[in-house]
Amino acid sequence: MIKKSSKISVITVLYLAFMCVSNAEISYAATGIIGNWTSADKKLRYDFLEGFAPKRGVVIKYENGNAKSVEGWEIRPKGIKIGYSTKKYKIVGESLIFGQKTFRKMPEDKSGKIIELKKEPQIFIDKLVDTYWLNPLEKESYQYKKGFSSTSGIYARIKDRKQKPIGSWSFANGVIKIDSNVHPNGRIAGDFLILLTSRNKITVLKRGKKSPKFQTVELKKKGKEFIRKLVSGRWMTPSVYSMPDYKEFRPIFGDLSGVIFKFDGPDYTGSSKWEYSLKTGSIKIGYTEYPNAQIQGPFLILLNKNGKTDQFVRPQGENITEFTHLDVKRLKVTETDTKTLKSLLERQWYAKPYTYKFIFEKNGKEGWFHQFRSYPFVVSGNTLKIKQFANFKNVRFLDGKIVLGDDKKSFFSDSKIVRLAHQGKEEAAKLANLQKKKLEEFKNSKLILKLKMKNGEIHQITLPVDEMKNIVSLSFEPGM
User: Fold this and answer.
1) Domains of the chain, with CATH numbers?
2) What strands, in cross-sheet order, belong to the sheet with 267-276?
3) pLDDT tens per residue across span 24-33
4) Are 89 and 79 in contact (CB under 8 A)?
5) Beta strands in 199-337 (DSSP E)
6) What is the three-class DSSP state of 203?
7) Which 3-state string (H, E, C) describes 380-412?
8) Which of the listed residues 54, 223, 271, 326 has the most CB atoms within 10 Å of its CB?
9) Average of pLDDT values for 62-88?
10) Has this prediction a pTM greater than 0.90?
11) How far apart are CA 251 and CA 228, in angstroms?
12) CA-to-CA distance for 363 and 367, rounded, in angstroms?
């Protein structure tokens, strides 16, 4: 006769044995699901990738060879959960019965060693920067590059063939940080880069083509070569939702100092100073001093004092024009000769959002400097629509003053003398073409002979050459 306590012990042992077998089966199912599975007609395929916790990971679904979705998977008591749905499944040998289909396991690729971020961080980083990484749906690609250390750098992202904002990455204390996102773990398994997010989600990227190795020119090591590349061409700051910003570093004051011409898309917005110090080896831009900087191929990386970086990239496919201080034309202002100054200034200028014009009087020494902004308008239905300004349903007038809408804008009728007249479309087009012609004229090099007479008059003669080096000799002879 078995005692009651003995019966309980037997039941407990049997229950524990059952749980061990059950957990073993689930554990086997979790490991057995890892790999690539394809249907008999090869039209449907699932790639199950192992995650960073037991019985879960990421699965990539392919239809007719094209990646269609990337979802998380998890082994549950009722089956395998993919995304929001749970389906029963069964693994029999090399076959997976999933839903209404049977899949065969594809041969395992033994060529790619699994590299864990926690165990081999430097090898992980070397592999990270060695290749392009693609979103499995192949809508965007990532290119990681080292910067001022072997454990930090920048990355560039291209989506739908457009350059997206450039970010930074760094590795420290066992985690990798990409911009402000912390990834506690990661691995490179075969053709996949798998990163664990701080919210226990998994990001997957697929290996692309080999990433090119760029020549690195560092400010601290090759200062003058760095500056020569810096002041050539344009540098771009891509944006997510708006037009990219552009910066042109130009040697206006000398080969080692100048200004940065800034553009918001096609619109010029202004300038700020930059200067390279031979003494400290740093570069100052505006009020910010950068102790070091790099140019890696199309990338410009500026290292701040706090260790953070500002990064830029060359516009794709753009020819790079080199500039030196010798290309700068300097005009000294003097009231005894304003002809060249008048020719240079008396045109149309722009700095967002205003247009500017110098209008000279006949004496060539006085005039008007106009700042104005033009808004196209249209009367549509019952509304006066002024683009980028406002819309008005009514207009009120009293005692020389006008009120637009519900006091959105009001103006005073003015009669002072101005020197800026409105042009129609045809005349405006002619003036715009004239501005282009003037710009091209000032781009071309000229050599001018200045003759100052006893009475103070100055005569200018444009020589039929553009550089002094083309002149062999110069002599003055009385004319006949």
Assistant:
1) 4-105 (2.40.128.290), 115-210 (2.40.128.50), 219-323 (2.40.128)
2) 216-218, 292-296, 299-303, 309-313, 235-237, 245-254, 257-264, 267-276, 283-285, 288-290
3) 344 444 568 9
4) yes
5) 202-210, 216-218, 235-237, 245-254, 257-264, 267-276, 283-285, 288-290, 292-296, 299-303, 309-313
6) strand
7) ECCEEEECCCEEECCEEEECCEEEECCCCEEEE
8) 223
9) 91
10) no
11) 9
12) 9
User: Is residue 31 within a helix (H) or strand (E), and if so which, with residue range?
Assistant: helix 4-32
**Token pair for 250:** 């130009």
The b-or-e profile of 42-64 (16+ CB within 10 A means b, else e) is eebbbbbbbbbeebbbbbbbbee
* DSSP codes joined into one string, 120-169: -HHHHHHHHTTEEEE-TTSSEEEEEEEEEETTEEEEEEEETTEEPPPEEE
Strand 89-92 with 167-172, pairing: unpaired
User: What tokens were used for 214?
Assistant: 């760029």
Tokens of 391: 């819309």
- Other CB atoms closer than 10 Å to residue 251's CB: what's the count? 23
Q: What is the dihedral of CA 26, 32, 36, 39, to 10 degrees?
A: -80
Q: Is the pLDDT of residue 337 over 90?
A: no
Q: Give the CA distances from residue 429 to residues 56, 224, 354, 359, in Å, rounded to whole numbers and listed in that order.
A: 66, 44, 19, 19
